[in-house]
Amino acid sequence: MIEDQRIETFCVKMNEMNLEYLVAYFEGSHSFLEQNLVFLLSDFKSMGESLIMLHVSGASTLIATPSWDAKRAKENSKSKDVIATDDLIGTFNGVLESRKIDLKKVGFIGFNSMKQSAFSKFSNIFNDAFNFYDEDFLKLTSCKSEQEIERAKKATWIAERGYEKMLEAAKPGIYEYQLAGELDSFMKSLGADDNFLLLSASQHNQAVRPPGRRRLEKGDIILGEISPSYEGQFIQICRSVVLGDVNKDDLFEKYQLLIAAFDRGVSAAKAGEKMSNVIRAINEPLETAGYGDYCRPPYMRVRGHGLGLSTILPGDVSVDNDITLKEGMLFIIHPNQYLPETGYLLCGETVIITSAGAIPLTNRRPSLDIIDI
Q1: Which of 45, 114, 220, 333 has the fewest CB atoms within 10 Å, i.e. the most exposed one?
Q2: What is the CB neighbour count within 10 angstroms for residue 258?
Q3: Which pLDDT tens digit goes with each residue over 131-147?
Q4: Cα(206)–Cα(232) distance, rounded to whole angstroms?
């Protein structure tokens, strides 16, 4: 009996396709907007290039680089057979030869991220006879496991504490990068293993960007896209803050449009609904208010997206994404928007699709906060 439900699902599919092994590859660059298939099947976040060989029985072999990371790989991977090496492809070929594996019964996923030089070496092993099954297997990863959902909840708790730290630390005169450093180090102290952080400020923001050497000023609108990872699961919250109690009535009025857009998106995001209909619901309050032209690039990109590392499905919250939502899908809804009167504003929460609809993981509703100075 295979204990891991996701691996069991993969093995059933492998049996249907007459595969003895499924090889998942990861090229070594982590991103909260990309899927790490080796992590998905092994629960190990490698420091370099890696692959996992999943047998149809459910047993697996993890091959990870670099060699000096062997101890961590063996302690953290769900795979009982772990090989740490400095020659991923050579080691993989050695395993194939020692086990006398029928290459015709080996399938591959995740090779689209591989560099040409590495791909050529794999091609030599398999005489260019690859069996790629990304489309068949990746759709099986669309929903988060119970463990991943619990990790997402912990990551959300860390993000909210990070935002509280931002409210506490932001003041006129400090650099954006100083404020970002405060947040990042604080969230790492709470258990975050990674953090994608955009943080910038202006009296009239054109967009959110990485923190730079601009000093904060009274009246700034500080934008924070806070995206910590806990044990490999990323989440994201999007926040807008006014530095100083200044007269910005129009700003607060316009921000209510973003909150209304967020609420519409949450109400629309239900199991069985098309993602494309979610973005239409998000855009409606803005279009009704006369901002329809601003609901397209370059004034906004997407209204949300999936969150890795294990899976990034259901993908972007965009009008051309017709994926059907399912219980267990996790993504952020963020009607981040440029408006001519106020500049760019952030508003967004990570949600999980349940039998009761989309449930935000945060403990508070979106709001435009003021820092008293």
Answers
A1: 114
A2: 26
A3: 889 999 989 999 999 99
A4: 31
CATH of the domain at 238: 3.90.230.10
Tokens of 179: 């404020």
Cα–Cα dist 220/251, whole Å: 12
Q: Could you tell me if 307 and 202 are in contact, meaning their C-beta atoms sit under 8 angstroms apart? A: no
What mean pLDDT comes out for the span 227-250? 92
Structural domain for 82, as ranges: 5-141
For residue 200, which amino acid is it?
A: S
Closest alpha carbon to 159 in 265, 233, 252: 233
Mean pLDDT rounded to a whole number for the chain? 93
Q: Which residue, chain included where needed, has tokens 């019964």?
A: 105
Residue whose tokens read 């020659």: 87
Please answer whether residues 33 and 62 qualify as being in contact, where contact means their C-beta atoms are separated by less than 8 angstroms. no
Q: What is the CA radius of gyration of the chain?
A: 23
Peptide bond into 325 cis (omega under 30): no
Whether residue 83 is found in the same domain as residue 194: no
Direct distance between the N- and C-terminal alpha carbons of the chain, in angstroms, rounded to an integer: 61
User: Nearest Cα to 45, choosing from 54, 57, 34?
Assistant: 34
Q: Check residue 117 and give its pLDDT.
A: 82
In what side-by-side order are the strands of the sheet with 330-333? 304-306, 330-333, 349-354, 357-360
Question: Is residue 182 a contact partner of residue 165, using CB atoms and an 8 Å limit?
Answer: yes
**Quick one: 274 and 298 in the same domain?**
yes
Query: What is the torsional sign of CA 128, 134, 135, 140?
Result: positive
